UniProtKB/TrEMBL annotation:
This is Pirin. GO terms for molecular function: metal ion binding. Signal peptide: none annotated. Residues 188-285 form the Pirin C-terminal domain. Its cofactor is Fe cation. Residues 36-136 form the Pirin N-terminal domain. The lineage of its organism: Bacteria, Bacillati, Actinomycetota, Actinomycetes, Mycobacteriales. Keywords: Iron, Metal-binding. Belongs to the pirin family. Binds 1 Fe cation per subunit. Fe cation binds at H74, H76, H118, E120. Residues 304-323 are annotated as: Disordered. The keyword Iron applies.
Amino acid sequence: MSNTDIAPAEVDCAASAFTGVLHPREVPLGGPRAIRVRRTLPQRDRSLIGAWCFADHYGPHDVHDGVGMDVPPHPHTGLQTVSWLFDGEVEHRDSAGVHAYVRPGELNLMTAGAGICHSEVSTAATTVLHGVQLWVALPDADRDTGRDFAHYTPEPVSVPGATLRVFLGQLAGSRSPVHTFTPLLGAQVDIDPGAQVDLGVDPTFEHGVLLDQGHLEVAGSAIDVADLAYQGTGGVTLTLRNPGAQPARAILLGGPPFEEQLVMWWNFVGRSHDDIATYRRLWEAHDGRFGAVDGYRGAVDRLPAPPLPNATLRPRPNPKGLS
């Protein structure tokens, strides 16, 4: 998924002292009739959870009238994209030659590395579109790796009071085979009505819980749909409680604090203004760094990059305090 802000601000993606609940902001995904998404990462209070640097939550959107997701080919650098649906179907095409579909309960992970471009279009059979789109920053040693794509369908795992689907990393004895470049946790957690779930977690990880539906308390703090609750390192248990009469569903993210400073602007992750300016120039020049997407049939053949801001893009210093 593209960051389609026409005037995107740079984001440092550095660890911060924030601990608490992040509330989303709404942004459009594409042109004037675009669906709207709720963005919880990045924010000034917290731009990273582990290497997770971007989180959009969308839907449920009624798209039976044909106004769904249609994101033309657009570039990425220095990251992996994680697509996870609750409802609907999205067609994916990328410049590595991959043509795949995103379906509920199935992980699609695309590695951009040095450069890739891709398109995303909800299929004609989709009447409701509902899911999350996540990005993972690549460490400096791997940010120029080659393009790649992985697909994985995790088996549901039952624990007292909940069902887990672990699509990245490991939790409660379930392990994903999908490769990541830093230790990560990504899982869907469905919590039974009235249940409290105490999940054993890695104390070297920080964690975020993004609520998709229902009611949920995370470590005693109540959150609303599309909120993201944060728990820092040091804890061996993450406590989730559903006080409602209906099931609750959340996405659990985790990883050790990512200590590298990054500059993230539009769909690029780099380390400096010069990195970002170079990526933008190469995309606008149709450079082979990003390749080309075959088979996309939208109104425009690719997304143009927004203009760079007048100021130099700089990573902000790592705030001091708890991670």
